[in-house]
# Entry
Amino acid sequence: MATETGAEQAAPRRSGRPSLEEAERLTDRVLDAATRLFMEQGFGATSVEAIAAAAGISKRTFYSRYPGKPQVFEAVILRYVRRYVRPAEDVAPADLPLEERLYRVATQLLGWILEPDVIALYRLTIAEVARFPELARSVADFAIADAVQALEGVFAAAGSAEDAHFVAEQFMQAVAAFPFFGAVQGRETPGLDAAKEERVRRAIALFLRGWQPGR
# Structure
């Protein structure tokens, strides 16, 4: 029979279900432990047992929250998305000029995807994609899709509702692909700096010269 460990042993037993705050703290412990182990050991070498032990819980408690390891990885990615990706309206109000709205959304996106932990997680998905293709799908579904959606709203408001999704995808490639993959490959340092911000402005100007709503 599985036994509780670590922090679970230290906490006094109470009847009834844990409070929402306690449940959130436990979730953070599990995801913190999983993130660290995935980055240190890789996805394939990290076991459910190791995640549970690092989080100070039993396997029974782990499985009461997540069906398995892929679902924990998805939760890790989703937590990063929720922390860093915000609706375009929060980052760039609709009353700003289009170029400034795009700049604000793009730099907010780059500030997130150039975080060292995000780069490390992406490297992990590439290293494991042949054995665990669901990892790459998690990154695309949660991270890329949310970023495209934020940009899609900006382009739709500018008068390109019909092809807003396609335009948003192309815009992401224009402003984010080079610095992101440069950081992933170790050719550029992580993080957003003045040089990268200037490159964003130049990419936006070039993009807008070639794109016009309704064309």
Notes: Residues 1-13 have pLDDT under 50 and may be disordered. The first helix runs from residue 7 to 10. The radius of gyration is 20 Å. The CA atoms of residues 5 and 32 lie 17 Å apart.
